Amino acid sequence: MGFPHILLPQAAQVWHLNQQLAQFEQIPEAKQRAIQAESLQALCEWAALHSPFWRTRLASVGWTKASDPWSILAQLPHLTRPDLQEHFDALSCSAALPPDTCIFAHSTGSTGRPVRVYKHGPSYELRYLAHSLRGSVWHRLDVSKTAFKFSVRVQDGMRQSWGPPEAWFGKTGSTVFCRSIERDVAEMYLRLKQHRPGYIMADASLAHEIARYALAFAAADKLRIDAFLCTGETVTEELRRDCQEAFGARVVNRYTNEEAGWLAIQCPRHEHLHVMAANVIVEIVDDAGQPCRIGQPGRVLITALHSEAMPLIRYDVGDVAEWGEACDCGINMPVIRRIWGRQIEFVRSRSGGMRYAPLVAEEFLAIAPMRDMRFRLYTNPLLRFELVCAMPLTDEQRAALTAKARQMFECDCPVEIDQRDAIAWGQTNKRITFMALDEPWLEG
Ligand SMILES: [Zn+2]
Known about the structure:
binds zinc ion; GMP Synthetase, Chain A, domain 3; twelve-stranded mixed beta sheet
């Protein structure tokens, strides 16, 4: 690269953003909130000017340019996935941006309600990369090692570097891409052994399957991995423990979505996450819409501060999370103690309350050596338990699995066990093991 080194224009922009973000992290929270308020005010003005949907909605809560943006935010109704589906054109501000600069983002979520939003491509990309870089810096990633990326969106392949942003600023190791659907865990593990990466990017459930596989079948030949960089699902204590035990690996939890990009990244010092407060305002609210206190799980609403192409204000992303205490690491951005995952992973317990349905896979694996499993609770009521197992289940195993499923999900309803060759997860990154559906199971 030679000295002195001249960065590409885009790299220089990302570096500059990175420096601004590094400063922002350290200033007192009150100052951060003042900066957020300015961005929020600008977003409301823009939205009222260019989006008929927002013009009406902001007027409904009495918004004017002189309004306090925080009190407006507290009064606005939540923006829902059906809103995005039904009012796409009225929400869009793409006509006010230069032609051909808006890109679509598609999100399926886990609810079967696909949405699409517009993003302003050039600015979104730069901000996205700058926040990625913060994550790499926070966690002191050794970019000279190989990165291994599992995704449903890639074909198998290899790149000689990590790609942007890291490769813009120095020499990096290579990246191996591995298509993660329609594929057995054993085969994926074999690919890891071939490449011996330092880092693995994967969704939490896939990371966990790989760690469990390594613990069960590869104990004699241990791979060492620095870290799993997880997105997409709940990072559990069990996942951290199994990755540590199987690979000596730590887990770095990262919370993102297609609609807004980076929402929160795990603290460099602790297991909780910091909200990426220069990118989003995160609210956590209870069923009555009131802010949750620390430790109280509630719905996550996000306001994407730079969503000019399609303003997302108080967007209900369908996740449940809880706040944590302020952090001592020097980063003053709000702390999310725990992301509980999709509301759909909560089941109604016998006492009538909502209860998280954590799947303790070990308890099922103790009964039968399953490779994959999926539970769907239908309104019949019926709990369908799909599983993949190398050998046919015995009657005793079926009875024990039925009893375990009933106990774990607190349901008295019939359980139907469906042993199959593979589970049809479809084209999704999110392998949600348990889901309570709003529909009956119809045979055939
Ligand atoms: Zn921290």
